[in-house]
């Protein structure tokens, strides 16, 4: 439950950048990688790409749900990887906090000819010394259907804190992947400093 006087969540926007991966195969990822390298050496780049992409998809599915490039940004990213890091993690108490993250290792549920990404996101806020200040489960739900297994995805996350006193804080975003049952989270520290 949110701490009513400390903050309110203003908005969370999840965005998706186009990217694809081929269907999972029954071949061993290592065998696919070797096959891809051999095909490339033999001058068959399209076949090599397919084999290497299949190997990457299998490795992806075996990976935990994790995140890269989790950081504060100056503005919402318009595309995958097109983010501008914020120069400071210090806020004046009225400026929205904008976060960028790229999830990896999530899965896809098969829905006929479509693949479905099904994620939900919680967040929690605590002081730097670990004191819980507020949280919200199921803050955002994200579902996407595609004919391809999309891998290049990013989140734009925005929080607005009202009435937060000066101090150091940590926000934790926890993502639940309903297609695989995997959970993953990431922390971002920041500071509020009025005037």
How many domains comprise the coordinates?
Answer: 1
Q: Alpha-carbon distance between the termini?
A: 29 Å
Order of helices and strands: EHHEEEEEEEEE
- CATH topology, by name, is Immunoglobulin-like
CATH architecture: Sandwich
The share of residues in extended strands comes to 35-45%
CA-based shape: elongated
Overall pLDDT = 85
Helix content: 10-25%
Low-confidence stretches: 1-25
Could you tell me the number of beta strands? 10
Largest sheet: 6 strands, mixed
Radius of gyration in whole Å, from Cα?
A: 20 Å
How many helices? The count is 2
CATH class wording: Mainly Beta
Which structural class do you get from the secondary structure elements? Answer: alpha+beta
Tell me what the structure shows.
The chain has 195 residues and is an alpha+beta fold. It has a single domain, classed as Immunoglobulin-like (Sandwich). The chain is 16% helix and 45% strand. Strands 3, 5, 6, 7, 9 and 10 form a 6-stranded mixed β-sheet that branches. Strand 9 (167-177) and strand 10 form a beta hairpin. The longest helix is centred in the first third of the chain and has 18 residues, at 45-62. The two termini are 29 Å apart. The model is unreliable at 1-25 (pLDDT under 50).
In short:
The protein has a single domain (8-22, 65-192), classed as Sandwich (Immunoglobulin-like), CATH 2.60.40.
Topology summary:
Blueprint: E1 8-16, H1 29-41, H2 45-62, E2 66-72, E3 90-91, E4 97-104, E5 109-111, E6 114-127, E7 132-146, E8 153-160, E9 167-177, E10 183-192
Parallel strand pairs: 3-10
Antiparallel strand pairs: 1-8, 2-4, 4-8, 5-6, 6-7, 6-9, 9-10
